[in-house]
Specification:
Blueprint: H1 3-22, E1 29-33, E2 36-40, E3 46-52, E4 57-62, E5 65-72, E6 77-80, H2 87-99
Antiparallel strand pairs: 1-2, 2-3, 3-4, 4-5, 5-6
Length: 107
Amino acid sequence: MTESEFNDRVDETLEAVEEILDDAESDLDYESHGGMLTVKCENGTQVIFTRQPPVSQLWVAARNGGFHFDFDPTSERWLRDSDQAPLAEVLSEIFQAQAGEDFSFPF
């Protein structure tokens, strides 16, 4: 994947996350700048998304740890590098734990 393709994939993913958060029942604030998306939960915790072009990864930092995701062109999904868990599942778990809300992510 070229750096341009990588950046396009990350942009699409972060935009999808923002759309889901806009429809949230809980009060979630987010800020996006410089390739980073910071989500602030009502309880004061944060979920931070950052792009890592040198390694073509999307990184997610949450209360329960930091996770690195590689884009799998075969399945067209971001998969956690440690165990191949899909980003959508990991984010659902993170937001359930930190925001107390169930989200279904479309990727």
